[in-house]
From TrEMBL:
Protein name: Uncharacterized protein
Native organism taxonomy: Eukaryota, Fungi, Dikarya, Ascomycota, Pezizomycotina
Residue numbers spanned by region Disordered: 339-366, 402-421
Superkingdom, taxonomy of origin: Eukaryota
Species annotation: Lomentospora prolificans
Comp. bias intervals (Basic and acidic residues): 356-366
Length: 509
């Protein structure tokens, strides 16, 4: 390295241009020798792939050794998932902001990227909708009963082609696992918004069956991920027991584990409650008009009904899923031998490891380590109330317009309150009433859309997406609920010692 520096120093003095080029080359040479291996692989895309997003950390050793909290997202680009195209200013989704709030180490998204701001649905099950649509269109109808004619659906609501949940899960499980597994994972399933958009055009009794099947299918795939998470060779695996404190290993040996964070491995799932798509500005401005006697008014009532049915079905399935028994060897490909191998951990006497024997989690274990078989991860799901934020913001604006205040303080929130927006009906993309600013698309075409001067005053950015301010608040509320319901306080900004004391107090109560 010293010879390289000397070589560069002796030659770059001849000219200012050569000096600049020499300094750039010198920095690159130094970076090649000093950049941590894990950071190099992420930067070059080795084994990470385009779906992997790393959130920065000042400790390079943490990235090399793995650990931390990973967030894996399956779903559709709906109102708070952020759109990187179509003129939208929302570059980050609510799950990425959630990752920031929980201080996670990795954000892995399988959500398809959609261009443009017009409706382009991603469904939980493409085949369920496609088969239902084909069966409906294949039926003969009486021309004297035009209300039974649904042939217009093929043009206005064709079957989507983006990856559905089955395809997303398959793609994820086929991805090579990281060099070092995370300690814990939060699984997010963000579906239902566009499902209601399409299914609300179908006869209600037909759409009900599709809704029930889709929700059931979601929990079937959740269980697939749960069982794959038990195998240390799968990307779904989280090495919880490889990063616990020595005293926890001692408690495991003595069968004295407590039901608290840090001592129990948990398979965590977050499923946002679906926001009724018919309350969005895009429903009014972009919903196709069906041929009579079909009406958008009927479709609106269908959307509200189906959204409620979806949310109730998810709530019911969560209760059943959390009570599922541990996998049996004759019910799954996860064999007990695999389970034991995945959960073998070493523990020295009294849980003490000498300084000389300390090694990274995934390096060679102590030769005389005692193999242990840890309990199966408990299932825990959070049905996050996403509609609360949107509806509260809209009610707040309505009460202020009417100069009314209720007993909870609605209608009198200060300007700094995150639930206060000056405009909750028109999206920012339509521009301010006084003037409109032309923003050309990145593709260099003549397509443009208006933009408001102060996006922070708007609830909606486009007809179907929230502004960045609203998305941040949605994620912050989700993080608060996840911290308390999913035992994630350790990853929040709260003082660690204080959090652990609060656990003991809660348990005592």
């Amino acid at each position: 390295m010293r010879s390289v520096v000397g070589f560069m120093s002796a030659r770059v003095y001849r000219g200012r241009l050569k000096l600049i080029i020499g300094l750039v080359l010198l920095i690159n040479v130094i970076a090649m020798f000093t950049l941590p291996e894990r950071l190099s692989s992420v930067a070059l895309g080795d084994a990470a792939g385009p779906l992997l997003r790393w959130h920065g950390t000042d400790n390079a050793e943490t990235e090399v050794r793995g650990g931390g909290l990973r967030i894996v997202v399956f779903g559709a680009p709906d109102l708070a998932m952020g759109r990187e195209n179509g003129g939208s200013n929302t570059r980050k989704s609510w799950t990425e902001y959630l990752c920031d709030e929980l201080r996670c180490s990795t954000h892995h998204s399988l959500v398809p990227s959609i261009e443009g701001s017009r409706p382009d649905p991603v469904l939980l099950s493409n085949s369920a909708y496609k088969d239902t649509l084909e069966n409906l269109l294949a039926q003969e109808f009486d021309e004297k009963a035009p209300g039974l004619n649904y042939t217009y659906l093929a043009q206005q609501y064709p079957a989507p082609t983006y990856d559905d949940l089955d395809a997303q899960v398959t793609k994820f499980l086929e991805t090579p696992p990281p060099k070092n597994a995370p300690k814990e994972t939060v699984w997010v399933f963000n579906f239902g918004f566009w499902d209601a958009w399409l299914l609300s055009a179908l006869p209600r009794e037909v759409a009900e069956g599709v809704i029930d099947f889709m929700v059931l299918r979601m929990f079937q795939q959740i269980e697939v991920l749960y069982r794959n998470s038990l195998v240390d060779s799968s990307i779904a695996f989280s090495d919880f027991w490889g990063y616990v404190e020595p005293e926890v290993i001692e408690k495991l040996k003595d069968n004295q584990l407590r039901d608290v964070r840090g001592e129990r491995e948990t398979f965590r799932v977050i499923i946002p409650r679906v926001v009724d798509v018919s309350i969005t500005p895009g429903w009014e401005s972009m919903r196709p008009h069906p041929p009579p006697p079909h009406t958008r008014a009927v479709q609106m009532t269908n959307a509200a009904y189906l959204t409620n049915r979806w949310n109730e079905a998810v709530e019911s399935h969560i209760v059943e899923w959390e009570k599922l028994p541990n996998p049996e060897t004759n019910e799954t490909v996860i064999m007990e031998s695999d389970r034991a191998e995945a959960r073998k951990r070493d523990a020295l006497p009294n849980g003490v490891q000498s300084e000389g024997s300390k090694k990274p989690q995934n390096e060679e274990r102590v030769a005389d380590a005692e193999p242990l078989l840890a309990p199966f991860p408990r299932r825990k799901a959070l049905h996050y109330d996403a509609p609360y934020f949107v509806l509260e913001a809209m009610v707040e604006r309505q009460l202020r317009n009417a100069d009314i205040t209720d007993e909870t303080g609605r209608g009198s929130r200060p300007p700094s309150d995150p639930l206060r927006f000056d405009e909750v009906w028109r999206p920012c993309s339509e521009g301010d009433l006084e003037s409109k600013q032309r923003i050309f698309s990145d593709r260099g075409t003549d397509n443009w859309q208006a933009a408001c001067a102060s996006p922070e005053n708007y609830l909606w950015e486009t007809g179907f997406t929230l502004t960045d301010k609203a998305t941040r608040e949605l994620a912050r509320l989700a993080a608060e609920e996840a911290n308390s319901r999913l035992y994630l306080e350790e990853h929040s900004n709260v003082d660690m010692a204080a959090v652990k004391r609060s656990w003991r107090i809660n348990l005592a109560l």
